[in-house]
Specification:
The structure is a single chain. With 118 residues, this protein is mostly beta strands. Helix content is 0%, strand content 53%. The chain has no helices and eleven strands. It has strands at 4-7, 10-13, 18-24, 33-39, 46-51, 57-59, 67-72, 77-82, 91-99, 105-108, 112-117.
Amino acid sequence: QVQLVESGGGLVQAGGSLRLSCAASGSILSTSTMGWYRQAPGKQRELVARITRSDTTNYADSVEGRFTISRDNAKNTIFLQMNSLKPEDTAVYYCNAVRLVFPKYDYWGQGTQVTVSS
């Protein structure tokens, strides 16, 4: 069973930066699409950013130009660099690893809280 462990969350003022990390227990980064999702209180979980096996990246419109997703396959870790943070970025951020072809899997981390104060 693969485990994903997020870290790097915390409290930051608006305009500040945070860098989230997600470490995988197994060597799955090179065979997975990795993503960051977030869920704010009372809202549905939403995609923030993802990076495919071929390093294609996608971002939610709300974070485009402010957030950057990256991966280090050798360290089995992905990152989310978050700049120019806004209060509306406040949420629990989750790491995801998914593979849609055999062998299929869909793993989630436990989440890390990001709070942006105004």
